[in-house]
Amino acid sequence: MQAQAFKNIVKKGFSFSFLSIFNGKSVLLQ
Predict the structure, then answer these.
(1) Which partner from 5, 11, 12, 26 sits 20 to 30 angstroms from 20, CA to CA?
(2) What's the DSSP call for residue 21?
(3) pTM for this one?
(4) How many whole angstroms separate alpha carbon 1 and alpha carbon 7?
(5) In angstroms, rounded to a whole number, what is the distance separating the alpha carbons of residues 1 and 13?
(6) DSSP string for residues in the chain
(7) What are the pLDDT digits (tens) for 1-30?
């Protein structure tokens, strides 16, 4: 149970950081 919650938190954190990096790159390209 705790391991699954930890995995979900890591997934959310990874996708959030990926999206912020992606958004930052598109802002720099503009």
Answers:
(1) 5
(2) H
(3) 0.48
(4) 10
(5) 19
(6) -HHHHHHHHHHHHHHHHHHHHHHHHHHHH-
(7) 689 999 999 999 898 988 888 888 877 776
